[in-house]
Amino acid sequence: MGLHNYFRASKKMAQNTSVAKLCKLACILILFATSLQASAQDDTDAVRTNYDSGKTSCLNLHFQATYIYQYKPAFSAQYSSKNSLQTPEDKENSVTATLYAGIRLWKGAEIYINPEIAGGSGLSGAFGLAASTNGETFRVGDPAPTLYLGRGYFAQTIHLGKEGDTNIPEGANEIGGSKPANYLKLLIGKMALSDIFDNNAYANSPRNQFLNWCLMNNGAWDYAANVRGYTYAFAMVLQQGSMSYKAALATLPTVANGSDLNTDLSQEYSLNAEIDKAYTLGLFRRKGNIRLLGYYNNGDMGSYAQALQHRDSIGLPEVASTRSYGRTKTGVGLSADQQLGDNMGVFLRAGWNDGKNETWAFTEADRTLAAGVAINGARWKRKDDNLSLGIDVNGLSQDHRNYLAAGGLGFQLGDGRLSYANETAIELYYSYKPLATGIWITGDYQLILDPGYNSDRGPVSVFSFRLHVEL
Questions:
Q1: pTM of the full predicted structure?
Q2: Per residue in 173-210, is it b (16+ CB within 10 Å) or e — as a string?
Q3: Residue 245 belongs to domain with CATH number
Q4: Considering its fold, how many domains does the chain have in total?
């Protein structure tokens, strides 16, 4: 017993040390960003002057830092296993910092480089939920802050037709200035597919909108990415009036949720395509967008049904043991956002994939339906504040649920057995911006019903604090 307590104390001390280091890093990054704000404001004013006069710089520099603290009270469960959301009280935090650097090479040609630091952990190591509660965390074993290259890509924009130019504001990974209304844009390099596809206006970024994975993106879109959310890809965007047509060929990780990407496209690849329509609706001409997404992944995946027929030495199915090249996953997604007034909008997402083979890159959801409302603080004279409420309901294919019920483990889920129910996540947040700053402070609450699709567990409450800085 004494030795057991010693190891528990040692583990707790190591965790506390990691948390202390992470908090220290967050403070340094935020103080660094704040100290640079005055000089950055001078640069922003200069850029704005150029922008207003129709001239733009060939260089672009921006920075973001995001710190998130999450607290989960203890909850009840009839049983738990290796990949379960653990029942005791849990406190975790995370920090990310990104430098956005861009340069214009010639007309329409730009290169963007994004070195990034990320550290911290999701609750229970981001296991046990499809609707994981912190979109800034990853399923990595070591919570220590790590430096890596997030994005590094080349973009060429080709002017089409005789339509007039549109002035685009300068921003992160956007040099800005005069851009064609109709164009073909080609991108190649390392990027996040979520930057291009599924760009819902009210539910798209865990840094300033919803934190939950299945509210920041379509949960049923197993989008090509390594463990940190990036992939090597070739993408095209064709903009014609109110219509946008997008396509991408991307690499998949060598193993499920892996850090390395397989660049041999004869073995593994992902095809993604989306059609976007912008429109105005109703008597007051309110703007809206609707998007239809489709994807096809081909890789070294395991089969849930085959795993049930080939069990390990103790009788449990193991999907990883059935992996074979040529296995596929096909899915579709629908996304819409609609203004209801000057300071209010609503959004909707729906998604489906065939769910026959194992989840490979994003999260273990084969069906998803999400909706919500966003209210801008201008209604109470706080134009930079936002109040939003979202709800997401996820489901599994029959093969997927049978596999988990038999005690199988995915890369994210596995309670040892399963009393199946749809997993539901409800999230409410208020984002507050102090006047004349590049800082946002957010309070967030999430309620998870039937975590891990298991009615024998939960419900779970999660309270979050977020500090986000932009320059």
A1: 0.87
A2: bbbbbebbebbbbebebbbbbbbbbbbbbbbbbbbbbb
A3: 2.40.160.180
A4: 1
